[in-house]
Amino acid sequence: xxxxxxxxxxxxxxxxxxxxxxxxxxxxxxxxxxxxxxxxxxxxxxxxxxxxxxxxxxxxxxxxxxxxxxxxxxxxxxxxxxxxxxxxxxxxxx
Length: 94
Description:
Layout: H1 2-20, H2 23-34, H3 40-93
């Protein structure tokens, strides 16, 4: 019984040291020491601001996607017309 317990302690002590030194553990300890970050009203304002920013970025992303699709269609049609014109020129030369 004693050797198994000793082996478990030998393995767990370095594991706990690594976990407790991690940035996540340090952030949790800091939060517990200092309490929450700001008042609830500030948190609500920050969340509302972030939601508005996410909406703005979503709209911008949709606009860029539409623009990309338009340019892709434009370039595809242009390459088709150019390849068709090249075929006609080759037929006239031949």
